[in-house]
Specification:
Low-confidence stretches: 27-32
Helix content: over 70%
Distance between the termini: 32 Å
Strand content: under 5%
Largest sheet: none
Length: 290
Amino acid sequence: MPLPAKHFIVCAHYIRSVIDYVGVIYLDLTHTSAAALALFAGLGTWLITALGAAAVFLYKRSRPKNLKLLLGFAAGIMLSSSFWSLLMPALDEAEALGSPFPALPLCAGFALGALFIWAAEKLARRSGCLAGEGSSSCRAMMLALSVTLHNIPEGLAIGLAFGAVGAGVPGASVMSAFSVALGIGLQNYPEGAAVSIPLYCDGQTRLKSFMYGQLSGVVEPIAALLGALVVHWTQRLLPWSLAFAAGAMFFVSVHELIPEACERSERAPYLAAGCVTAGFAIMMMAARFA
């Protein structure tokens, strides 16, 4: 005989209470428990990034046309992530901190992120480190760098969530902190694949493409640990860092990926745009419903 709906609600509340209670006990037993939990959660999100990047080992090298479509798909993922995963939380955080002009750190951080990627590309080309490898090496560097920058504030967000539990902030709970980590982890899977697969199709080896993909997420456990240890400082910097990462991802998508995806696509002029749209939609669902 099926149980009434209210029984399921009671069970759900009970399970959540048990998880929170166990988390509080763990926090009481260890001095660095909040940081340890944040590090553990950050390692989990890094693992999911590595799993996404590992998809390159199952992928067969495609023709240049398919590479352009993959680059468009990756651009859509990055554009969507820059808005839903970075700019929107940055605005919420700025308003929660009581900033009189909450859009100011967003605009400034966004512009600085785009300027940073532009300067990094100019410096790399001027130093000659890309000589002989052409646009493939440049795209590899810019793609991996932008996703890495994107993962730093996400790691800080995980650390802040667990640091708030350790500091006894009202409303903070272990369950909600793990929910933050879970949502970020689900977003990291397509991001890892969005780095490794286009690089492999662009001529990199499977192993090198995988290393680029998984290394983009290695900063998350480090940032999570720092966020939990210095929660009061990082909370003030979070809107700026989120917007900075969003600007970096946006610049790489518009300057590198989308033009390359749309190049010489006269036979299917809307196919590349469709891939950008599909990537944006999939990442939007991952970000909003995780």
